[in-house]
Amino acid sequence: MIRYMTVKDRRQNASNSVKGPYSTGEVDIAHKNDHGGAFFKIMNIRPGIKMIFADHEVRQNLQMDYEIDLAPISLSYAMSQRIRSTMTSGSRGKTVIERSPGDSVLAYLPKTRGTNQILSNGRILGVSLHFSPQVFYELFTDLPECLKGLCSVSGNPKGKRFYQQSRFDKATLMVLKQILVCPYEGEIQRLYFESKSLELLALKLAALEQGPSIPDSNRRDLDRAREAYHILMSDLDHPPSLIDLSRRVGINRNKLNQEFKALYGDTVFNVLRNARLSEAWSLLKQSDMSLSEIAFSVGYNNQSNFTTAFRKEFGKTPKEVRQDVSVEPLPPHIRKPALAR
Q1: CA-CA distances (angstroms) from residue 121 to 65, 100, 162, 200, 329?
Q2: I need a labelling partner for 218 at 20 to 30 A (CA). Which of 26, 124, 133, 260 fits?
Q3: Would you state the pLDDT for residue 122?
């Protein structure tokens, strides 16, 4: 069971004297799963902001009931698993929504209950942020235009529910991966997570401001290709084969390569190789991992093959890049998608 309630709400409910409809501060998220093991970790960013993240291997689908009373404003990202959400709110009928790897959701769902079924392929990988309404709106001196269609201009949802789902881009994926491999602890870690939380929110709002940019006639295949891309980027060291990947997202291999060329400028194989080598470059400049450890972490079982591919891509060996202090921490070229969204 997952239950969302503010600290103030919990105290008021205990005394049967709930006065106002919204929190004045902290968001309290109580999580209980019935499958054994702690699949999710909850991080207190600061009063009114919490982060939940997961990076866990599982052998079965998971089903968790949830109940939301006085809701936070939530921003969530599915990185490796499909999620089927069934929700009921007040007198409204039951709604079923499905999310795939690469989907993000911005939502405010007071007085809602339902079930999340996580259809795992062996790994749960995701991040979510939860803001009390007061803290969320205090982030803005002027409400962004993209939020005015969802919330009142005054910055108070007044019970108005909203649910906005869209695909997230490469920049967002990079921030999510940085969260999951955070190298810091204690107060520095908390500060790091706070900065990344605001960065994720800024990227989400910027995408909403931009609006849709893909013709509806081609959206389905492009979404499947994006799902395949996020599956690959989330598991660079052990990615699925092209056949398994195409089956997982429901598109044939030739069509998948075609959509990859439209979105990312190259075939599935080349996009994966470029991502692996770009990740390796960053690890060479920003970590103390050995060359063999870096090779293995980006999917090369043989350090010699890794060195050959790296030199062919960048014109330098991994050792030369690590030793050259004048070299930038990011690779000299990062192939950007032909379409931004």
Answers
A1: 20, 12, 29, 25, 33
A2: 124
A3: 66
Cβ atoms of residues 153 and 108 within 8 Å:
no
Q: What percent of the chain has pLDDT over 70?
A: 77
Q: Which of 105-109, 262-266, 302-306 has the lowest mean pLDDT?
A: 262-266
Question: Both tokens of residue 47?
Answer: 């009063």
Which among 69, 75, 91 is positioned nearest to 21, based on CA atoms? Answer: 69
The full length of the chain comes to: 341
Rg (CA), the chain: 21
CA 49 from chain center: how many Å?
A: 17
What pTM value is reported for the model? 0.61
List helix spans (H) across the chain: 7-15, 133-138, 145-148, 170-180, 186-210, 216-233, 242-249, 253-264, 268-286, 291-297, 303-314, 318-323
DSSP state of 240: P
3-state SS class at 192: helix
Distance CA 76, CA 56 (A): 17
CA distances from 60 to 57, 85, 120 (A): 9, 17, 7
Q: Which of 52, 26, 28 is nearest to 41 (CA)?
A: 52
Residue in the block written with tokens 């979404």: 223
